[in-house]
Structure formats: C-alpha cells, structure tokens
Design goal:
The chain has about 150 residues and is mostly helical. The protein contains 7 helices and no strands. It is about 50% helix and about 0% strand. The radius of gyration is 21 Å and the shape is elongated.
Length: about 150
C-alpha cells in the first residue's frame, strides 16, 4: 500500500479527516500570512512585536515547518482577518479562540535570563536546578568545555 492509498483509506475516518483538514488550514494560513506581511513591507520582528508572539512560531507558521500553538495562529489570523477572508480562508474557528482559553506566552523582556557562565563545566547541576533544554550533554565534558 502506498502513501496515497493509505491517505484515502484513513480519510474515511472523521477524526483523521478533521485533523488533516486542520493541518491544511494552518499551512494555507501560514503561506497567506507570509505574503500579506511581505506585501505590507513588514518584517517578522515587526509583526511579532505588534502581536506579542514568538518569532520562532511565526516562522514555523509561515513556512509550515512544525507545530504552532493555536493561540499564535489565532493572534495572526485576527491581525490579517479581512485579507484572509478575501482569499476565501475560513478564519472563524481561529477568531472564536480567546487568550483566556490558553496560557499566554511571556514576552522576551519578561523572561528570566539564563546565566550559563555561573555553571561549572566540570560538574552536573543538581536535579533541582532549572536548565534550558539541551544544555546538558549525555557525554562527559572535556576540561575545555567540549564533549568527548
């Protein structure tokens, strides 16, 4: 069975079809938003500053390259509501979302900076210390700070 046949078979299931359609809508919204943003001669940074969202997620939305929190999609859709409607994109499900239905992202200015300089390169931090994802290596660290 090839991928197309599998898709056709799974498309008969309502839950699969709904999920597949939602992904397609997000990809379509992302492509349209990129074009609309560029038509307004607006950078991603300018848009994220206006909307209070993450540039990482805006980039993912515009390129269709990964998961994007629904509240990010909703914020962008609200900003570009009229032009998206003119393009025939169904924005109603996104407009129904409110910031109260999901936790808001903290703006970068409110996030606590991570002081990596204060961490010893020769010891692993205690389990209770908070670390950003990917800071610890599974391999031993050389005395000059590089993994073996």
């Amino acid at each position: 069975m090839n991928l197309s046949e599998l898709h056709q078979r799974l498309s008969q299931k309502p839950t699969y079809r709904k999920a597949y359609d939602a992904i397609g809508d997000v990809v379509l919204i992302g492509a349209a938003v990129r074009k609309l943003r560029e038509d307004e001669e607006m950078t991603q940074q300018e848009l994220v500053n206006q909307l209070g969202i993450s540039q990482f997620y805006l980039s993912r939305l515009e390129t269709g390259s990964g998961k994007v929190p629904p509240m990010v999609v909703a914020a962008v859709v609200r900003h570009f509501k009229e032009p998206l409607c003119e393009l025939g994109i169904n924005v109603e499900p996104w407009l129904a979302m409110t910031p109260k239905t999901a936790p808001a992202e903290k703006p970068l200015s409110q996030q606590r900076p991570i002081m990596l300089e204060s961490m010893s390169r020769t010891r692993r931090p205690a389990a209770t210390e908070e670390l950003p994802e990917g800071v610890l290596h599974d391999r031993p660290v050389h005395k000059h700070g590089t993994p073996h």
